[in-house]
Amino acid sequence: MGVALGKISKIYGKIYNLENEHNLEPMRAPDFGFCWPAQRWASGHSLTSVLKDDDLTVGDFVRNMKQIVDLLRQLRGAIKELEPLIDSALVKIDRGVVVYAGAAV
Fold it and tell me: For the stretch 80-102, what's the b/e string if a residue is b when 16 or more beta carbons lie within 10 angstroms of its beta carbon?
């Protein structure tokens, strides 16, 4: 994941420089704070383990994960080439309390 975040940071840097060159108000820098809890969850860690060293509440965690699930489902329909990768990601993250919260709504 570190490689991907590095690439995102480099792309942001290029966009930031272009914004400055054209006297545009720069957009906010990417916030990678939720990447680590999401990655631990996708790796199969328990909810207790994911939240142990973080300031997230269960509700915040579930809401953020549901947003990721929703985004992945939208991308799945839009980018057919990524369907296998997205399906794999959905299996890893739409589980436990995340899938249960969706069923309860």
Answer: eeeeeebeebbeebbeeebbebe
Four-point Cα dihedral 17, 21, 25, 27, nearest 10: -20
Task: Give the Cα separation of 7 and 57 in Å (integer).
Answer: 29
Angular region, 69: left φ>0, alpha ψ -120 to 50, beta rest: alpha
> Does pLDDT of 92 surpass 60?
yes
- In tens, the pLDDT along 9-39 reads 999 999 999 999 999 999 999 999 999 999 9
pLDDT, one tens digit per residue, over 57-66 is: 999 999 999 9
pLDDT of residue 105: 47
Tokens 């680590």 locate to 36
Contact 20, 39 (CB under 8 A): no
Output DSSP code: residue 82. G
- Going by the DSSP 8-state scheme, the letter that residue 102 receives in this structure is H
Tokens of 2: 């570190």
Residue type, 56: L
